[in-house]
Amino acid sequence: MKKIAILFSGEGTNMENIIKTLHDKKIKVVKTITNNSNANGIKRAKKYNIPTIIVDNKNFNSREDFDKELVSELKKDNLDLVVLAGFMRILTHTFTDNIKSINIHPSLLPHFKGAKAIERSFESDIKEAGVSVHDVTSELDGGEILLQKSFKKEDMNFTEFEKRIHEIEYSLYPKAILKYLGEKYE
Ligand code: GAR
């Protein structure tokens, strides 16, 4: 079975969804890593007996030193892919030159790169919104797009809009991971 690690920073619902949908069925989630020792996602991973390594960015003097530690943790396992799921750190070449990874972003890239993408996408005049899965490069939310799904905003309120974004994330990300790894999705 192909092996992945998942990186997250907060709630970890995408991480949990990937574990629920794919772990021990299609792929193995070997470990998770978070930069936030208070992240709710830590409890979620624990439910499935998947370890979470805490690499707190506050303990490092530079982005490069933090990234070096991530790389060294990730190189311990012979991983096929690293999956970023709500991992809210800007990564440098130290990471991207050494680790093959993909990311999910809650907008139709190249629109609304960076933070608060759901809010900015909701407030904009653009009539469509969506979710993108892309290759990670050192350019923030800038790598090649792997999969994208859009929907019409119509007269949704913000709660409905946010719910729709997350529903799409939960169906799109497992598909994108399997597609990337060359595995079938049924
Ligand atoms: C998700 O909506 C994800 O797309 C977004 O953070 C949320 C994490 O939620 N990621 C980004 O904005 C990356 N720039 P989760 O922790 O519950 O999966």
Q: What's the quick description here?
A:
With 186 residues, the chain is an alpha/beta fold. Helices cover 35% and strands 23% of the residues.
Give structural notes:
It is a single chain. The protein has 186 residues and is of the alpha/beta class. It has one domain: Formyl transferase, N-terminal domain (Rossmann fold). It contains 6 helices and 7 strands, in the order βαβαβαβαβαββα. It has helices at 13-22, 41-47, 63-75, 93-96, 117-123, 158-181; strands spanning 2-8, 27-34, 52-54, 81-84, 101-105, 128-135, 145-152. A 7-stranded mixed sheet has the order 3-2-1-4-5-6-7, with helices on both faces. The longest helix is centred in the C-terminal third of the chain and has 24 residues, at 158-181. The radius of gyration is 16 Å and the shape is globular. It starts with a strand and ends in a 5-residue tail after the last helix. 35% of the residues are buried. The structure holds glycinamide ribonucleotide. Glycinamide ribonucleotide is lined by residues 8, 10-14, 85-86, 104-106, 117, 141, 169.
Keywords for this entry:
single chain; 186 residues; alpha/beta; Rossmann fold; seven-stranded mixed beta sheet; binds glycinamide ribonucleotide
Shape: globular
Helical stretch tally? 6
CATH fold assignment = Rossmann fold
- Quick one: biggest sheet? 7 strands, mixed
Which structural class best describes the helix and strand composition? alpha/beta
**Order of the strands making up the biggest sheet:** 3-2-1-4-5-6-7
Instruction: State the CATH class.
Output: Alpha Beta
Low-pLDDT regions: none
Ligand inventory reads: glycinamide ribonucleotide
So, CATH architecture?
3-Layer(aba) Sandwich
Count the strands? Answer: 7
- Quickly count the domains: 1
Q: Evaluate the radius of gyration.
A: 16 Å
